[in-house]
Amino acid sequence: AIAAETQASLDLARGPLLRIVTFNLGAGKPGRLLVVIHHLVIDGVSWRILLDDLERTYDSLKRGEAASLPPKTTSYKQWSEKLSVEASAGTFDDEVEYWTNALQQPVATLPLDYAETENNTAQSARMLTMSLSEWETRALLYEISEAYHTQINEVLLTALAEGFRRWTGERRVLVDVEGHGREGIVSSVDLARTVGWFTAIYPVQLELPNVWEP
């Protein structure tokens, strides 16, 4: 209840964007630390950096030593300013046509159960959960990749496109693919220990070939 209340207290417009709560569970019991940060401030990679620093600092202080952390890298502010400068200089102009074209291609919309009513709300949603066997998981992670020289994300995207085709009959689907956003697209930048929200979302159009089916 306290965790939910703390998360709800974050306010993007007026702050705070971060809260830390310590829990005293009583004598003889270890305490707990809750760190809540707005998603626009931190991404998954940043959490690993932050938690690693917290653990290092805690262990050092516990041993009675001074905390010592690796040097900081390019700040989020510096990265965004460099990115803006390079974009204004036309560094990425050659890519505009590619990404614009991906969004302009005709694609089918997802079928709706209540297309003519107002019942398409979160309340009417249902969730279907399935799991893979140990053999299927091993095949997915290792055997398929080795046989077809693919990565796991390519296999999953292919499965998504095939599932969409069986559902709708369409061989083309547009999806948003998420990446960590820390690629070296800006010169003189080191983001190895930078905390921020770098997550990049970009459109990818999947198209299945016309193959024979039994």
Structure in words:
With 214 residues, the protein is an alpha+beta fold. 39% of the residues lie in helices and 13% in strands. The protein contains 6 helices and 4 strands. It has helices at 2-8, 44-62, 76-88, 93-104, 134-148, 152-168; strands at 18-23, 32-37, 172-179, 200-207. The strands form 2 sheets. A two-stranded antiparallel ribbon has the order 1-2. Strands 3-4 form a two-stranded antiparallel ribbon. Strand 1 and strand 2 (32-37) form a beta hairpin. The longest helix has 19 residues, at 44-62. The chain is extended, with a radius of gyration of 23 Å. The termini are far apart. The model has no long low-confidence stretch (mean pLDDT 90).
Briefly say what this structure is.
By secondary structure, this protein is an alpha+beta fold. It is built from 6 helices and 4 strands, in the order H-E-E-H-H-H-H-H-E-E.
Tell me how many strands there are: 4
Read across the widest sheet, the strand sequence of neighbours is 1-2
Shape: extended
Fraction in helix: 25-40%
Radius of gyration: 23 Å
- What distance lies between the first and last C-alpha atoms, to the nearest angstrom? 54 Å
Strand content: 5-15%
Structural class: alpha+beta
User: What's the total helix number?
Assistant: 6
